[in-house]
Amino acid sequence: MKRAVTAGPGKRPGLAPSLTRSAIAEAAPAEGVAGFSLPGVAARLGVGHSTLYRYADNWDALVRSAIELVAERTAWPSAELPWCDLLTGFADALWGACEAFPGLAEAS
After folding, report:
1. Whether the Cβ atoms of residue 53 and residue 62 lie closer than 8 Å to each other
2. Cβ–Cβ contacts within 10 Å for residue 66, how many?
3. Cα separation, 69 vs 61, whole angstroms
4. Alpha-carbon torsion 77, 81, 83, 85, what sign?
5. Contact assessment for residue 38 and residue 49, using Cβ atoms and an 8 Å cutoff
6. Helices and strands in the chain: count of H runs, count of E runs
């Protein structure tokens, strides 16, 4: 539950801010990387879609954030592997990311 913030000098009272770039990047893959919309992500987060523009300039920026999050969460193979095993490991990791995050293969 969010708690109300006490207004100080120059501050408006209201709920404590909980929306972050990270929270937005998390919500986008949950909607489907290639098929999400700003209104869909906003609804998932419980905010108006115009609020997202404070954190992402446009839809492309939001897609980039989502893809970066997917890349960070993907278990990539060690660069120390022999080249054939390394390529196989990258293919397996990418396949797993596409299964875990529907629409990733279609995102550009």
Report:
1. no
2. 28
3. 12
4. negative
5. yes
6. 5, 2
Q: Model's pTM, two decimal places?
A: 0.64
Give the H/E segment covering residue 94: helix 83-100
For 96, the token pair is: 């797993």
Bridge partners (DSSP) of residue 14 are: 5
Q: What is the mean pLDDT of each run of 10 residues along the chain (108 residues)?
A: 49 57 80 76 86 82 84 93 97 91 72
- CB atoms near residue 94 (< 10 Å): 15
Cα–Cα distance for residue pair 62/54, rounded to 1 Å: 11
